[in-house]
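Note to self: user wants both folds in one dump. Writing first protein now.
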Amino acid sequence: MIVVLDEARAQTDLAGSLLRCPGCAGRLRRWGFARPRSLRAPGGGRVSLRLRRVRELRLENRHAR
């Protein structure tokens, strides 16, 4: 899993193939979305997240970030 703090920049970097796999340094591209997930938020509420799936350009490995 790849964690980013600035979603807008991550989307831009992903579109330009600037993000790299932390395991092998391969370039990543968009590959749809994972199923929605519900997480507990600080203070007791719930937050729904939909993770972006990515895959490497050359190795076809898949990741969700």
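First done. Writing the second protein, which came from a different request thread.
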Amino acid sequence: MTNMATINDEDFERILRPHLKYLDSGEPVNPEADLKSLGLDSMSAVDLLFDFEDEFGIMIPDEEMVDSTFATAGALREVVNRAEAIS
């Protein structure tokens, strides 16, 4: 599938934010933020990847389903960017 739009910061945060139950609504998502401490657990991480795939028509490879992908918002963004580049 070819992706026509680039995933911008606003779209990235819009998809990520609902999965971070401990992030205050007015607080921005810091790229260095520890996603687990913000409430991202293993089940919500899988849902989050599906949300990115569904919303942007990208395919995140199975080998990216590792703890380091979900360590920080910045790490996750890198994985999403790579998936976008190959989709």
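Dump finished. Worth passing along: The CA atoms of residues 53 and 59 lie 6 Å apart.
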